[in-house]
């Protein structure tokens, strides 16, 4: 009788167990009452699904703690999203150890502290050894756990925005503590001091400490070797010139000011030492330049084998593409990054097939089977901007999915679910393929995310499908790329970087390995209604080294205020020797 009652209260768990699902989303209006009946915890039955890779429980005001058994019952978990609940003041019991967890989102809860036994996991051995992204924004944290770096030594992104922090733990900035941390965001806190030891964050690219109570910025910040973007707006800095600079100058100028000592830049090396280091750097650059002089022909030969990417800035573009974002998408899939790439050759041989295969592989790997992010690629010529990224009720959202007729999203989801059931029966196995693997990602959503062009046509329905209207064909040379995520903006940027790099590699391979047109290639183009132009080779110059052009795309709110532009100066920061990015 008790088991039947549990099945009736939690049908999602029974379905996930029966279908051996690897992803599960619990949300919606009925969730709060069921969690309250379970004592403010997740039901123990949930922790008997050891195959789960992705678990999201969001928007539940009665969820006060995850409950015991999570670490033991979900050993293969890759992503855990528990945002906009009522977790707090601590986590009892602690979450870890979770040996395979990569993404942890605890944003929008009521956490005040994460002490040992009520925090993220043990420090010895590390409780979260593979964690890459940690989001603790929108809580009430007064301090961070001192052993955070030991608990999650491979952390790359840490978001602490909107808490009550007045200091970072000293251990966070110790040499080698977080060697991979590239993004640290702690805006809207009460931070009074930033340690000079922050220079030990060797991989730091983005630092946002805006709207705090800092009076000084340590000069050693300029020693972070990869730092490209800083935000200190909204602090009351003693150095008035520096305060003006953080509101109006580029990061490079601010770091240069700190590097030479500035005027009262706080703790760190003195001005003379900064000048000495800059002189030393200059001499090293000169020596390197001489070493690289070498033979002119050898350098020229090496250049022909490099991948070239040229960035076209919004200010240089007579007709830049813009994406406006409606606030209603915030609770569905809030993060989006876009870019335009011109000069792809998808016409020759199997180049289109290689491109689509590469996109699928990115979905499987970096995008974690679309649970972390989703890529969509469009034929730019079929798009009329500006675009609007918003959310619509399933019964109102209409799209012409790839290879299908126009349909409402509600009916499309039902069709795909029926196809999935039929697929299981025919193949006599629990796993399904294709789009059917991603249906659960929208379970419980009242609205579905969508990207709409200026004609009012839905061209993208993430994470499910694109529109037939903007389908990539062999004649496509200019593309609009979008990456969306429910996890973080940085994940969108990282995946967009990887996608554009892969496109450059594929394009160069196509240009260097001339392939003949096959019958199937012609058939594909005939079906699309466009026959290929045998003279078309849009990206190749006389020497076959013309770069792909990457045009910046601005994402703004409905008032026109900038949310993100890609690629910014911190994006496409590619250190590989075979790639040149021309800005």
Describe the protein in words.
- With 583 residues, this protein is of the alpha/beta class.
- The chain is 25% helix and 17% strand.
- It is built from 13 helices and 23 strands.
- It has helices at residues 2-9, 11-18, 31-37, 70-73, 148-151, 240-248, 251-259, 271-291, 296-304, 351-364, 409-427, 489-512, 519-528; strands at 23-26, 54-57, 79-81, 103-105, 133-135, 157-159, 183-185, 206-208, 229-231, 307-312, 322-325, 335-342, 374-379, 387-392, 398-399, 407-408, 448-452, 458-461, 465-466, 478-485, 548-557, 562-566, 579-582.
- Strands 10, 11, 12, 13, 14, 17, 18, 19, 20, 21, 22 and 23 form a twelve-stranded mixed β-sheet that branches.
- Helix 1 packs across helix 2 (11-18) and helix 10 packs antiparallel against helix 12 (489-512).
- It is globular, with a radius of gyration of 26 Å.
- The model is unreliable at 1-7, 270-275, 292-305 and 518-544 (pLDDT under 50).
- GO terms for molecular function: phenylalanine-tRNA ligase activity; RNA binding.
- Pfam families: LRR_8.
- Residues 332-508 form the B3/B4 tRNA-binding domain.
- Residues 282-291 have a biased composition (Basic residues).
- It comes from Chrysochloris asiatica (Cape golden mole).
